[in-house]
Design goal:
Blueprint (H helix, E strand, L loop, with lengths): L11 H7 L5 H10 L8 H13 L1 H10 L4 H13 L4 H10 L2 E4 L34 H12 L6 E6 L20 H10 L3 E4 L19 H25 L2 E5 L4 E2 L7 H14 L7 E6 L10 E2 L3 H11 L2 E5 L9 H8 L6 E5 L15 H12 L6 E5 L8 H20 L3 H9 L3 H10 L5 H11 L8 H11 L5
Parallel strand pairs: 1-2, 1-10, 2-3, 4-6, 6-8, 8-9, 9-10
Antiparallel strand pairs: 5-7
Bound molecules: L-rhamnitol (RNT) and zinc ion.
Length: 480
């Protein structure tokens, strides 16, 4: 029995003090957050009592000690088999699909550059002030090693030019592969390939909100040189670790009542042609559109139509970020429309709440729809998976684990769809049968197959991984 199981009621603060969060920054942070003190509104007191009843720490620890539910898998697999789905194949494919995890969740998109003075963030804003953000490359790497042990399946790691470790200020257009040698050695040691992104924001020459489309030639040329340098770096990563995706996103746009929408797009087209003019071995080029950004609400130069046609005409890949479309637009539906013309299709898996808010990815309808469509398209080898979100208001390592596990889970869920039956019903014109089959998915024992996948990948199931996160928070993150 742990102390929390005693019958004496304890406040959240006491529980926190007794448990993992014994250090000052976490106590202060959590006190500030909880409005539930004795004598306040009855509803809040009630919630506080409910929270006590949950005994979070004990639940996580107990989960961590449980052996995962190997027992249920056989029966579950039989249920799937009865609907024509092979659970073994689904598990194998789900675990083998690489997910490229974004480094920028660790440090709220700050980067490691040595620079003087503040710079504009290019409309990217991580909100929240949860303690423990990574401050150095070593801290990002250590944090990711913890996250990676809690995520099943094949991973890659995705860094940005602003994560160069140069030891002295190096202009972005002079970056070289050697400035990323620590990333490469580390990734190689873990068997992860590295993906890359030019950083065309958070820089004095991006202060106008324009980079590759800037009216000034000298500024455009700086960013062209930067993007070319980035392709060389990606090509180096590719040769060392296996193909590297180099994804170009720029913030370029205008705030209000744009007078000339054509010339900036012509300039972007020319700049991109200059960037992409020669082939770089092992570098897979993609371009990423956006609907709008903070401060550039009226006009985005690199809109979806622009980049889709650019990618198609130039033979490069397209990146679809789930937060970069109108909130009612379906990214899932775009996959089958695009993949026959443009390859690869890189998915930036994100979760927008009301706007491109980059919330931690969850196993929700949108994500399931994207994974379903990717699997149904039969073109999985042309679809690349990457995460792109940043939440500074919660434990950042947990944010990684929650989001990437959700992607893996949704991939497995999609691979377990009784899809052939649904297609058969559709071809037979039997709409009711199709609906019934799709509804039955919610009743199938998915959890048992997911647990089995986690067990085979040697990572915790259920809530067990949270015990690890809390330990790391108490031992490492809280000391930052
Ligand atoms: C921005 C894009 C882009 C960035 C990263 C940091 O809206 O989504 O992919 O999030 O490059
Ligand atoms: Zn993105």
């Amino acid at each position: 029995m742990t102390p929390a199981a005693s019958s004496r009621p304890r406040s959240i603060d006491t529980a926190i003090k007794d448990r993992a969060f014994t250090t000052k920054p976490f106590r202060a942070f959590r006190r500030g957050r909880s409005a539930t003190r004795k004598g306040e509104e009855p509803l809040l007191e009630l919630l506080q009592e409910e929270n006590e009843a949950m005994k979070l720490h004990d639940v996580f620890e107990a989960e961590a000690k449980k052996r995962s539910g190997a027992g249920n898998y056989k029966a579950a697999a039989e249920q799937f088999a009865a609907l024509g789905v092979d659970a073994e194949t689904a598990i194998a494919k789900a675990l083998a699909t690489p997910i490229s995890v974004h480094c920028w969740q660790a440090d709220d998109v700050r980067g490691l550059e040595l620079r003087e003075g503040a710079v504009d963030s290019g409309g990217l804003k991580a909100t929240g002030n949860y303690p423990g953000a990574a401050r150095t490359g070593d801290e990002i790497r250590a944090d990711f090693e913890v996250a990676a042990r809690l995520i099943p399946g094949k991973l890659r790691f995705n860094i940005h030019a602003m994560y160069a470790e140069t030891g002295r200020p190096v202009p972005r257009d002079e970056l070289q592969p050697e400035h990323f040698s620590r990333w490469v050695d580390w990734a190689a040691a873990h068997g992860w390939a590295l993906d890359f992104n030019p950083t065309c924001f958070a820089h004095p020459l991006a202060a106008d909100g324009l980079t590759l489309a800037h009216p000034k030639k000298t500024i455009r040329q700086f960013w062209i040189r930067h993007c070319r340098a980035c392709r060389d770096i990606a090509s180096y990563f590719g040769r060392r670790l296996g193909d590297s995706v180099c994804n170009i996103w720029i913030p370029d746009g205008l705030k209000d009542t744009t007078a000339d929408r054509l010339r900036p797009r012509e300039r972007l087209l020319q700049s991109l042609d200059a960037v992409l003019e020669d082939k770089k071995p092992k570098c897979v080029d993609t371009v990423e559109s956006k609907l709008f950004g903070i401060g550039v609400e009226d006009y985005t130069v690199g809109s979806h139509e622009f980049y889709l046609l650019y990618a198609q005409s130039r033979g490069v890949g397209i990146c679809l970020d789930m937060g970069h479309f109108h909130p009612t637009e379906s990214v899932a539906d775009k996959i089958s429309a695009i993949v026959a013309f443009v390859r690869p299709v890189l998915l930036h898996v994100s979760r927008g709440l009301r706007w491109d808010s980059d919330h931690v990815v969850r196993f929700n309808d949108e994500l399931r729809a994207v994974c379903d469509e990717a699997v149904r398209s039969g073109a999985m080898k042309h679809i690349l998976w990457a995460t792109d979100y940043f939440d500074a208001s919660i434990n950042r390592v947990a944010a990684w684990v929650i989001g990437v596990r959700a992607v893996r889970k949704a991939l497995l869920y999609a691979l377990l769809e009784p899809w052939k039956l649904a297609v058969e019903a559709e071809l037979a014109g039997d709409g009711a049968a199709k609906l019934a089959i799709e509804e039955a998915r919610a009743e199938l024992p998915f959890a048992a197959v997911w647990e089995e996948a986690c067990r085979r990948a040697d990572v915790p199931t259920g809530l067990a991984w949270m015990a690890e996160i809390r330990r790391y928070e108490a031992e490492v993150l809280s000391k930052r």
